[in-house]
């Protein structure tokens, strides 16, 4: 009998997860307690075959769940790698305040060639300028690869060109090229507008890139929860 128990224990040791092994060991002890007489060779073999079948099914389910989790992580990693390859330009924080015409020209001419630059020309007291500044503050967090800037029309040195009737103005550049020139841009928005409205307006001209993907670590934490 002792040899049979050793053989059975060695067989089960290689079945898989510890929980399944412990269940199998408890099963053996309970079986032995129920019968004082040692089980026959045929009964032991039959019980072992039935339990081995249960173990194999449980292992399959555990492996299936593990494979699905690994597959999700692999897909996210591939998407992140592809996104990183397509978005290899610099990243920015917040809206940059430009204090002169020279700073305005520098940000247009010297910024990375893949970077979209959005410049808001405003003047304090002009309707819509403050609201648009607030919207750009929000969009800057949503689009870290876009460089959002603002400059007072007087400080830009082009106050005559950007008179009050043309404000607020949004200019969009990439690689030094002017892609969008929206004078009095709030006329294209509702009386009360929000960051999502400005985002939709710029997207209607294809001027904003794809949004950043969620961090892989955050998604993995959500999966665990």
UniProtKB/TrEMBL annotation:
Highest rank taxon of the organism: Eukaryota
Pfam families: Phosducin
InterPro entries cross-referenced by the UniProt entry: Phosducin, Phosducin-like_reg, Phosducin_N_dom_sf, Phosducin_thioredoxin-like_dom, Thioredoxin-like_sf
Claim: Phosphoprotein is one of the keywords in the record: yes
Xref: CDD domains: Phd_like_Phd
Domain called Phosducin: residue spans: 7-37, 45-214
GO biological process terms on file: regulation of G protein-coupled receptor signaling pathway; visual perception
SUPFAM superfamilies: Thioredoxin-like (SSF52833)
Keywords: Phosphoprotein, Sensory transduction, Vision
GO cellular component, one term: photoreceptor outer segment
PANTHER family associated with the record: PHOSDUCIN 2, PHOSDUCIN-LIKE PROTEIN
Similarity comment text for this entry: Belongs to the phosducin family.
Protein's name according to its UniProt entry: Phosducin b
Source organism: Amphiprion percula (Orange clownfish)
């Amino acid at each position: 009998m002792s040899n049979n128990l050793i053989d059975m224990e060695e067989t089960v040791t290689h079945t898989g997860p510890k929980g399944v092994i412990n269940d199998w060991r408890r099963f053996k002890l309970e079986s032995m307690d129920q019968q004082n007489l040692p089980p026959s060779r045929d009964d032991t073999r039959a019980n072992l075959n039935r339990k081995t079948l249960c173990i194999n099914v449980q292992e399959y389910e555990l492996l299936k769940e593990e494979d699905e989790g690994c597959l999700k992580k692999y897909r996210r990693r591939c998407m992140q790698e592809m996104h990183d390859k397509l978005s290899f330009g610099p990243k920015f924080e917040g809206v940059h305040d430009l204090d002169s015409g020279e700073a305005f020209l520098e940000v247009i001419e010297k910024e990375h060639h893949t970077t979209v630059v959005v410049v808001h020309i405003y003047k304090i007291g002009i309707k819509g300028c403050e609201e648009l500044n607030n919207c750009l503050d929000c969009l800057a967090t949503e689009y870290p690869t876009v460089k959002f800037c603002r400059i007072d029309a007087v400080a830009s040195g082009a106050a005559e060109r950007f008179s009050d009737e043309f404000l607020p103005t949004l200019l969009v550049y990439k690689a030094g090229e002017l892609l969008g020139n929206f004078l009095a841009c709030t006329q294209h928005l509702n009386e009360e507008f929000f960051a999502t409205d400005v985002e939709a307006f710029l997207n209607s001209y294809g001027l904003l890139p794809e949004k950043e993907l969620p961090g892989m670590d955050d998604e993995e934490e959500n999966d665990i929860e």
